[in-house]
Amino acid sequence: MKELRVRIFRFNPEAEDHPHYQHYQVRANDGARVLHVLQAISDEMDPTLSFRYCCGSGQCGSCAVRVNGQAVLACMEEAKDSMTVEPLELPVIRDLVVHMEPYLEAIASLIPTGEFRMPTHEEVEAMKPLRSCIECLACVSVCPALKVTKFAGPTVMREDMRLAIDPRDHEDRVTASVADGLFTCTSCQACWKTCPKDIQIPGKAIEKLRALANREGLTLPRHQEVAKLIQDTGRSVTRTEPTLMEQVPEVIEPRGEVKGTVGFFVGCMYNQRLPKSALDALEVLKRNGIRVIIPREQVCCGSPLIRTGQVDFLDTIKSRNINCFTFRGLDVVMTMCAGCGSTLKHDYTTPFRIMDITEVLTRFGIEQPAPLAIKATYHDPCHLLRGQGIRDQPRELITKVVDLVEMPAICCGSGGGVKSGNPAEADALGELRRAEIEKTGAEVVITSCPFCEYHIAPHTDKPVKNICTILLEGYAEKDRKERPPA
């Protein structure tokens, strides 16, 4: 047995104006689950505590709560000392019990067709990744789109895709999903990463529904314009100044000993809109002994096409990008853009390794920059944190230079085609990001994605800088201090 201190959210909207937290000390067996602790509190200490549970074995989804800020199933999550237990981020009925019915009632049911046909083996295999949902609504509780716009939610989209595959269903699920907000998803992947059944809703449901919508002519006009731009120019955005590739040679030699060589997949934003951030990165790489090769033939990675369901000429793009790096015999291709990196890692099959620049710098090691007397916060790009599982490397680099204060890792609103197709939603999410930035008291916002960098800037009065830019400032300060007096 062990003693656990637990902090639990309490709120009765019928009798209280504001929620509060109550502290308990519970004796529990080693390996006890959060649900066991809640039951012990209710049975032995406080019978007024309200929470849901049914099966106790991770199959019904009714006991979903947040533990230390993360949505989990109480019956499956191991209880820890000093944990905080809160309801899902949904309207509260009482304590840990939330309103689930409006979201569950929106989930479609199979409506039989006049002519019955059993699914083929291929159709069954396509449905399998979508069938294990237990309707816990953890995904709904973390969806950023639901906080700012009308959206049926990821659970509804998952079931719409499952039914769209099923030949026994009569309804037009694609048109229904568009009406329910299909194009409001930011592809942040929070729903997937919080799902206790590991259902990849963005990739297996939403992007597939968008591809079906595209076949039926339902793609948003602005998304069609982006696709045409990629097809015509190889880039998803227009240039606003001289591009990175116009400013640097194909091979960039480091200063001093060569530690390693990487190919650089630049991406559309760093080439066309934010070349200074990429130039700063190249200076950091040069200073740390890394040779960089930038093939001129590379084009858009295709992420904007995949996220919006426009995949007709995607194979041509993939082939061109793979070939230009393979031709140069490169073992490692580096990305700076979180979206490009996630796409190359998950949507391509390459003969070379894909590494984010933060992985490259921490792998080879960097010269220690001078610390700067700056308080900064870091915005985790969705396609880096959840898309590539990269959390520690950016922080390892940032804390070499500035004092880091954390803020919640929420979507800034620029992904999934939302910034171009639903700018009002993107701006609303940008304002939520502004509020979190202000809470930190930081002087600078640091990130490692050009779309985040570009989108957050208008939503804060703090400068928004790339990780490499802040590293370069640390090196400039170090050089200044070491410079001999005149």
Domain unit count: 4
CATH top level label of the largest domain: Mainly Alpha
Strand fraction equals 5-15%
CATH topology (fold) name of the largest domain: Fumarate Reductase Iron-sulfur Protein, Chain B, domain 2
The main pleated sheet reads as:
5 strands, mixed
Strands of the biggest beta sheet: in what spatial order? 2-1-5-3-4
Secondary structural class: alpha/beta
Mean pLDDT: 97
Shape: globular
From the alpha-carbon coordinates, what is the Rg to the nearest angstrom? 25 Å
**Share of residues in helices:** 40-55%
Overview of this structure, please?
This protein has 486 residues and is an alpha/beta fold. The protein has 4 domains: 2-97, Ubiquitin-like (UB roll) (Roll); 103-215, Orthogonal Bundle (Fumarate Reductase Iron-sulfur Protein, Chain B, domain 2), CATH 1.10.1060; 244-356, Rossmann fold, CATH 3.40.50.1860; 375-482, Rossmann fold. Helix content is 41%, strand content 14%. It has 23 helices and 16 strands. It has helices at residues 34-44, 101-105, 121-127, 138-142, 145-148, 154-165, 173-179, 190-194, 201-215, 221-233, 244-247, 268-272, 275-287, 303-308, 314-326, 338-346, 357-364, 382-388, 392-398, 418-421, 423-440, 450-456, 467-482; strands at residues 2-10, 20-28, 64-67, 70-73, 83-86, 92-94, 97-98, 251-252, 260-265, 290-293, 332-335, 353-356, 375-378, 403-405, 444-447, 464-466. The strands form 4 sheets. A 5-stranded mixed sheet has the order 2-1-5-3-4. Strands 8-10-9-11-12 form a 5-stranded mixed sheet. A 4-stranded parallel sheet has the order 14-13-15-16. Helix 6 runs antiparallel to helix 7, helix 6 crosses helix 9 and helix 17 (357-364) crosses helix 19 (392-398). The N and C termini lie far apart (69 Å).
